[in-house]
Amino acid sequence: MKPRISPLLIALVAPLLIGADKPVLVPDISAREVQIRYSFSGAQLLLFGAVVYPGGRPPDHQVDIAVVLRGPVQPILVREKIRIAGIWMNADSNRFRSAPSFYAVASSRPIADLLDERTAAIYELGLHNLQLSPGGGALPEKERRFEAGLLDLRSRHRLYSEYPHGVEINGGVLYRAVITIPSQVPVGTYTAETFLIDRHKVIAAATRDIQIDKSGFERYVALAARRHRFLYGLTCVALSLFLGWAAAAAFRRRF
Fold first, then answer.
1. N or C, which end of the chain has less CB nearby within 10 Å?
2. Quick one: pLDDT at residue 238?
3. Distance CA 187, CA 35 (A)
4. What is the pLDDT of residues 39-66, one digit of tens each?
5. Which of 67-81, 167-181, 213-227 shows the lowest per-residue confidence on average (mean pLDDT)?
6. Is residue 131 part of a domain?
7. Of residues 156, 167, 214, the one with CA closest to residue 46
8. Is residue 1 a part of any domain in this protein?
């Protein structure tokens, strides 16, 4: 069922725009918090909202919406492997200082049709416009090669995605977009950004936060790994040794 923007909400916001000369976005999200349990197999987030125009009248031409869901930024080391004598070995590496752990962008039309390259880069709209901040010291050709590798790797794991026709707009006022959250999504505070685009310019923007966290036993294990790293490491080693011994013992008894 499609969500509906409350008429009361629009009625409360509209008086604030009487003297405004620019439209205002009123965004919302189907869930402000996503809990990851042992049975978590992914989720779908619905990002929807309304555009409130000065005077209450939408323009007589098409406007567009782009929605970005971005995960926490983290440094990452990307390694390049080559095959030597039948064995895959690390040959080279490059570090990025600020790669988002998750990135998805949905738009009413392809980003290239909505904005010029400079504006898209400023707002980081589109996978190839992400500011990944390479560690420096590498040749531009190497940085581009590793950046392409990082984008491809995370796209294949569904951590980076683009939906060029993923936003539906009703009457130039109501909009909705569905973004898929994969099962291996990292935890943390996510930011949902909505951009109103008119004639190749971003004329309004709004943000909302989403919390993705572990719950139950998974949360206990994650907290233990962060707060007691040494003991957690010893426990993992001991558990691995025990499971190896148990498997060997079972194999001897059977044969």
1. N
2. 72
3. 9
4. 677 888 999 999 999 887 888 888 999 9
5. 213-227
6. yes
7. 167
8. no
CA distance readout (Å), 105 to 16, 87, 123, 161: 30, 38, 12, 7
CA distances from 132 to 89, 100, 105 (A): 25, 8, 16
Q: Which residues, including other chains, have CB under 8 Å from residue 127's CB and lie 6 or more apart?
A: 103, 105, 151, 155, 160, 162
Tokens of 238: 């001991």
Q: Please check whether residues 94 and 158 belong to one and the same domain.
A: yes
Q: How many domains does the chain have?
A: 2
- What is the reported pLDDT for 1? 45
Question: The domain spanning residue 16 has which CATH number?
Answer: 2.60.40.1930
For 36, counting Cβ atoms within 10 Å of its Cβ (0-12 exposed, 13-18 middle, 19+ buried), the class is buried
Best CA proximity match to 202, nearest among 22, 21, 16, 13: 22
CB-based contact 41:183 (threshold 8 Å):
yes
Pairing of strands 160-163, 103-107: parallel
pTM, two decimals, is: 0.74
